[in-house]
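Lecture notes, part 5. Sequence design as translation. It can be helpful to think of inverse folding as translation between two languages: the language of shapes and the language of residues. The source text, in structure tokens, appears below.
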């Protein structure tokens, strides 16, 4: 049996290797987190927590050389101790090196974010303040705008930081929180689009009973159910993700914390979680898509039977905006989550994700407001009223 290295050999090994342990968290015997400490022949654990170990000089040097190669971006943020790994931060790579496109992409995303907030906020203010827009469709549209604002606010500020800095670090709790808000807002949008398609079905296919069925009580129940179901399901999945074990790899090649990239870093067996995720998310993704498809089959069947061209155009105009929004939103989701991973590149995945997290929320207010005469007339009346009040005050 080979003899253990002497104290002098250990000191020599230590002096020849630089310990880059700043910012790493460890677990002591009690499971509490303690700052790294330098100690002969150890890697930062308390002297009382373990016995004096033998030092593998070659192994120590090899390990330290690996550590020195890691960039100082918080990449070295985990350590295996007693077969457990603690990850305290993730690294989001974003779009990588943009080669001169950094400022244009940042400006485009910032402009889309600002216009998204202004457009959706305008719809919320108009619907809340005008009696002309006191109908179920505009009530649902108001909540859809609120959902879009939540989605973009959860993703875009972090995205802007990633674009400027070519990546960023995000703590484990912040990553889980971002995933939860993203999942909840996306699920809520799926359910709200389904509710809006049901509203259009009643308005076109059952116009005589529309007012009776789609009363205020049903509206509020549908909206509360959409928000509540999405947040409940996403919270369950987020809690299950937070209980997974994560290995030393903490690099996410994406611009936000999504379900699949997080699971790819886990050392745990995630098959059960993926099965539960499929079962829980079906009511807020697949079933709504099927309901929307069936609703529009009946709607188109009724529109085709309208005898006059003017009548068909008028009926179709009431649901055309919603149909465009549904198409853009679900095409992106299907391309990302249903097409196999080998079917698209990483950059294509990021562009598609950018579509439904930034572009779609930006386009929604334009699609719903520009062709809509009621929204435009209400906006004009409010602007004229404000101008008259300003003139009376002498401003």
């Amino acid at each position: 049996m080979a003899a253990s290295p002497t104290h002098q050999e250990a000191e020599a090994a230590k002096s020849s290797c630089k310990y880059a342990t700043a910012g790493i968290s460890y677990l002591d015997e009690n499971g509490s987190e303690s700052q790294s400490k330098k100690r002969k022949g150890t890697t930062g654990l308390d002297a009382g927590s373990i016995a004096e170990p033998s030092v593998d000089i070659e192994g120590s040097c090899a390990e330290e050389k690996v550590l020195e190669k890691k960039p100082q971006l918080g990449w070295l943020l985990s350590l295996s101790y007693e077969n457990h790994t603690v990850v305290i931060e993730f690294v989001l790579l974003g779009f990588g090196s943009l080669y001169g496109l950094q400022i244009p992409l940042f400006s485009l995303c910032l402009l889309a974010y600002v216009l998204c907030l202004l457009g959706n906020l305008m719809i919320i203010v108009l619907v809340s303040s005008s009696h002309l827009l006191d109908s179920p469709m505009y009530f649902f549209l108001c909540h859809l705008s609120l959902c879009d604002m939540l989605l973009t606010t959860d993703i875009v500020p972090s995205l802007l930081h990633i674009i400027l800095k070519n990546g960023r670090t995000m703590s484990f709790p912040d990553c889980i929180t971002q995933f939860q808000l993203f999942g909840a807002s996306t699920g809520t949008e799926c359910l709200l689009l389904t509710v809006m398609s049901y509203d259009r079905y009643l308005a076109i296919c059952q116009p005589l009973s529309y007012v009776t069925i789609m009363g205020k009580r049903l509206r509020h129940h549908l909206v509360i159910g959409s928000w509540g179901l999405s947040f409940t399901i996403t919270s369950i999945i987020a809690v299950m993700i937070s209980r997974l074990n994560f290995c030393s790899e903490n690099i996410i090649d994406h611009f936000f914390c999504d379900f699949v990239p997080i699971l790819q870093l886990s050392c745990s067996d995630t098959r059960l979680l993926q099965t539960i995720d499929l079962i829980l998310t079906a009511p807020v993704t697949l079933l709504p898509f099927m309901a929307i498809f069936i609703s529009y089959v009946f709607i188109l069947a009724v529109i085709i039977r309208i005898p006059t061209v003017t009548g068909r155009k008028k009926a179709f105009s009431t649901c055309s905006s919603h149909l465009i929004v549904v198409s853009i939103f679900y095409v992106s989701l299907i391309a990302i989550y249903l097409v196999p991973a080998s079917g698209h590149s990483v950059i294509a995945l990021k562009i598609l994700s950018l579509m439904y997290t930034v572009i779609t929320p930006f386009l929604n207010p334009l699609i719903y407001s520009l062709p809509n005469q009621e929204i435009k007339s209400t906006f004009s009346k409010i602007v004229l009223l404000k101008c008259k009040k300003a003139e009376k005050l002498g401003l």
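The translated text above is only one of many valid answers, since several sequences can fold into similar shapes. The chain is about 65% helix and 5% strand.
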